[in-house]
Design brief:
about 375 residues; alpha/beta; Quinone Oxidoreductase, Chain A, domain 1; Rossmann fold; 2 domains; seven-stranded mixed beta sheet; six-stranded parallel beta sheet; about 25% helix; globular; binds nicotinamide-adenine-dinucleotide; binds zinc ion
Length: about 375
């Protein structure tokens, strides 16, 4: 069929919305009619080159990373199933999980679906089944898919391993947010930071990821949730998601945390800034208490290796510095779990959507993200 998609031809260019050819789903694949796609900062990392794979490495694996269809947060309806698909049928509503979960690899088997082996080709974006493309330009050139999804298009073809079936009654334009941002942020607090009742938690950066880390920390019973962002209106909005205090910078937060805890410092700190840079780690770990934990959720440029960190404190104060992908979640368990909390009025999704866009407005959506105008921008189809 013919459809449209926002394509990134190479880093440092804008998204180009073009007509494309979409093949029928092959074995183990489904065609999904998307209802909405979230504008996560990770697609912006693709645009800035932060997520550019070494072209030689991609070539060794048999594909090129660019051109690529963007978008890895989305939900929609299954409109066609390929041969051998047993877990989904036409008409099913699905959230697209930005990491597939096969359920059988060693990571899936030990309850770490966020590390599923199928995630190995996440940034290359050919179909998992046979490493070929279902998406093509009008001139017949193969297109990659961000996170094997490509949600910046009204239709896509994905593997059933990327689909999590949800109840028909859940609005798809809210469910979409759980495909990355909500699960990533909430899980960064609940799973990766392992926030416990009564703890003091600092969240640095209040975008779609950070606001959900705030609501995860609050839901896990933190006493103090300090929400940090230079943008005034985001700090004001943080209270809705459970923040008890705010600060405009890490330095301001450090002083506040010291005062609130009588010098004991924060049990947990979570980094959810737009870009993870090496200079943010020392100040973050500086406000973590002895025995406490710092969680890096924000994405750094792919070759970033320099980090400032006080190694004496790390060992002598038994601090932990940990990475976190997809909120260390199990999408097949956690996506339905989070949506049940939404249905019960306990998890906030409506409040996350600041602006909605058409597919043609995708570049405006990312300008708004960079200008600090969005908690989450959403493309609706
Ligand atoms: N680890 C994962 O699995 C995963 C998944 C999704 C997104 N991410 C990453 O998480 C990060 C956040 O994504 P997002 O969509 O929420 O981005 P966003 O751009 O919507 O939000 C980032 C926020 O950080 C704030 N900020 C920037 N510098 C700051 C600083 N020094 N101190 C305090 N606040 C600061 C900005 O004002 C903004 O509000 C990105 O790097 C994204 O790629 C990681
Ligand atoms: Zn994302
Ligand atoms: Zn797996």
């Amino acid at each position: 069929m013919q459809t449209r998609a926002a394509i990134l031809w190479e880093p440092h260019t804008d998204w180009s919305v073009e007509d494309i050819e979409l093949d029928d789903p092959k074995a183990g694949e489904v065609k999904v009619k998307l209802a909405a796609a979230g504008l996560c900062h990770s697609d912006e990392h693709l645009r800035t080159g932060d997520m550019r794979l070494d072209p030689e490495v991609a070539k060794l694996m048999g594909w090129e990373q660019f051109p690529i269809i963007g978008g890895h947060e989305g939900a929609g309806e299954v409109v066609e199933v390929g041969p051998g698909v047993t877990t989904l049928k036409e008409g099913d509503h699905v959230v697209l999980s930005f990491i597939p979960a096969c359920g059988r690899c060693p990571s899936c088997a030990r309850g770490r679906q966020h590390l599923c082996d199928l995630g190995a080709v996440l940034l290359g974006g050919r179909q998992i089944s046979d490493m070929t493309a279902r998406h093509r330009t009008k001139n017949g050139r193969d297109l990659g898919l961000m996170c094997l999804l490509g949600t910046f298009a009204p239709y896509t073809v994905v593997n059933e391993a990327s689909c999590v079936k949800i109840d028909d009654g859940i609005p798809l334009d809210r469910a979409a947010l759980v495909g990355c941002g909500v699960t990533t942020g909430w899980g960064a607090a609940v799973n990766a930071a392992d926030v416990r009742p009564g703890e003091t938690v600092v969240v640095i950066g209040l975008g779609g990821i950070g606001m959900n880390a705030v609501q995860g920390a609050a839901m896990a019973g933190a006493q103090h949730v300090i929400a940090v962002d230079p943008i005034d209106w985001k700090r004001e909005r943080a209270a809705i998601f459970g923040a008890t205090h705010t600060a405009a910078s890490i330095e301001e937060a450090a002083a506040l945390v010291a005062e609130l805890t009588w010098g004991a410092n924060a049990d947990k700190a979570i980094l959810t800034t737009g870009v993870a840079t090496g200079d943010l780690i020392a100040p973050m770990m500086g406000m973590v208490a002895k025995g406490g934990r710092g969680v890096v959720t924000a994405v750094a440029p792919i070759s970033q290796e320099d980090v400032k960190l006080n190694l004496f404190d790390l060992a002598m104060q038994r601090k932990e510095l940990v990475g976190c992908i997809f909120g260390n979640a199990n999408p097949r368990r956690d996506i339905p779990r989070l949506l049940r909390l939404y249905t019960d009025g306990r998890l906030k999704l409506d409040e996350l959507v600041t602006n909605t866009y058409t597919l043609d407005e995708v570049n405006q959506g990312y300008r708004d993200l960079l200008d600090g105008k969005n908690l989450r921008g959403l493309i609706t189809y």
